Amino acid sequence: MKVKYTAFLCFLLFLALPVFATHVAVLETTGATGVLSLEEKQYLTDVLRSEAVKTLPAEQNYTIMTRENISMMLPPGKAIEDCEGSCLVETGKNISADYVTQGHVGRFANNLTITVELYETAGNKLMGSFSSKAPNIEALEVEIRQKSNELFSRIIVSSFGKIDLQPVLNKNMGLESDLEIKIDGENSKNGRKYTRGIWETSPGSHEIEFTHHCYEPQKFKINVLTGKTVNINNTMEPLMGTISLTTNYKNAFREVPVSVNATVVGKTPFTGRVPLCGKIEVGEESFKEVVPLVWNEKKQLEITHSLQKAKPTIEEMRVDSLATAEQMAKQMAAEAAAKEALAKEKRSKIAKPISITLMVLGLAGIGAGIYENMVGEDEREKYDDANFNNESDFKKQWDKVESAKTLRNIFYGVGGGLIGAGAIVFFVF
What is the reported pTM? Predict the structure, then answer.
């Protein structure tokens, strides 16, 4: 009675095991009559079960069913030692085992032999097997221990599920490298950092976490089934903050459009919610400028942005037009003056030698006039001192005086005119 009560408690504990654990049943070793005793076959079964525990640890969600668990699930009147062949997979299904294995001993010549088979109960599929022979049961135990690990490892290969991690960064803000992915609180597996892609994991419940300094963090749980892939393409929403933005241009307020990620959202003064990692711009067309944001812990900013450039207003365009016209007039006047100076310089190069020549000739004429004046004075003295014998000599001497005066006046006039002409040419040209 006590044995049945203990078995019943074990059965209840088995039912309380996690739903997503992988259950493996090691059925009793069978064999031909007289090859091994019941106790020896049970011992080899225990060896197989202990090797299964080593290869498939409980911390990886594997449950190796006990002899009592299996006995409770067998049909009435059926002993666990009697289960072999077609009963193997059927028993596995009855006791909700995912995998079932059993050894069969025999004799070949002078050696003991054993064949161990592993089945997946869901698909009635033979996962693998091994056969060995040995001269005695101790050597046969060594063979079982050496080859069991490879056989049970086939369960590990086939019992994993997969997670396809493809979080969507809404608005494509920030760097992909800043995205951190955690599975069950860990950001790496076997030294490899979790990134986008497909990752193999054990069946059961897993906690997924996405964090990025530009986006709201996400944490949720998923269930992974053996041989199945869970696709995760959650959209991460941007972290938001509040800004109060105004703009100045040349120390005066200037109303300009405000854009967030290339979309116009209003005009300054602007107050609203914007993504922490969004691109905030003010201005329009070729006058756009980026507003740098340095967020505080409260995610609230008050910004006065000084514009480096701004689209001109109508009044500014009018003033600029007048200033431009004035500048153009000054420039044209300067160019005309420069041309005139250049032309004057060219004329001066030609006129200067001419003016000098004229003044030299003028001075020569003045000199000749002075000479004729001296001649005239001499002739007058001769006229005044002479005693003329006749009127003819008187008239002749007087003509000399008048002739000298006339030449003097001619030379003075011509010389002065040449000097004046030279001066005019020098200063005018």
Answer: 0.48
